[in-house]
Specification:
The protein is an alpha/beta fold. The protein has 2 domains: about 70 residues, Ribosomal protein L30/S12 (60s Ribosomal Protein L30, Chain: A), CATH 3.30.1330; about 160 residues, SPOUT methyltransferase, trefoil knot domain (Alpha/beta knot, 3-Layer(aba) Sandwich), CATH 3.40.1280. About 35% of the residues lie in helices and about 20% in strands. It has 9 helices and 10 strands. The strands form 2 sheets. A 6-stranded parallel sheet has the order 7-6-5-9-8-10, with helices on both faces. It has a 4-stranded mixed sheet with strand order 1-4-2-3. α2 links the parallel β2 and β3. About 35% of the residues are buried.
Amino acid sequence: MDNDNQYYLYGMHPVTDAVRQGRRFEKILFKKGLEGEQFRALLEEVTQRDIPYQFVPVEKMNRLVRGAHQGVIAYLAQIEYVPFEEMVEGALSRKANPVFLVLDGISDVRNLGAIARSAECAGVDGIVVPAKGSAAINADAVKTSAGALLRIPTARVANLRTALYYFRDSEFQIVAVSEKAEDTMYDVNLRKASVLVMGSEGSGISEPVLSLCTVGARIPMVGETGSLNVSVATAVLLFEVVRQRTHSR
């Protein structure tokens, strides 16, 4: 972990004070088995404020922080998240066919940063990430994005399925980007209001999310390697969106 305390806090009192001051957090780590009145009070406030948190082994926490963390380490948010519905409605008020990215379980911060860089270059209207089960948008992600994460609207949601239902109700097509799709990206009309769903590096799009997608798109491959890195695949799809929207077929 970066030793610059600009990026994280640790210890029961500093983290509690920061939560009560309304600081923005990427997530908070608690030691497994942590007990006590102070911990219970902090956990209650964290839950009430919808701050993502997880319990981890003390060995991991000791590797992250050399000081007396007291079983609590908090990552400070590096970007200003925007409310999901506000982001979608704002885009729809500006254009008839916005394009959004939904990232389902992207776990590598550099992949996330690279995706955001391509998204901003391609004019994506916003990125949606889950509150849990996703790479932290930390200093490394912002750096890898070349600052794009500071410019592109990003929403963090508790449940991706709820977000996809909202997109469907708003008449977006939900495009599952997968090598298993029957149609290639050239067969899909990406001029429509679209949501591109990108899955995790290892297992792809999760079944609950995939079940809500309305169309599939794959990148045609001619080599022997079965798939592209997710950040590269995202860039390829995004610039097919740009091609379709700026050139006639």
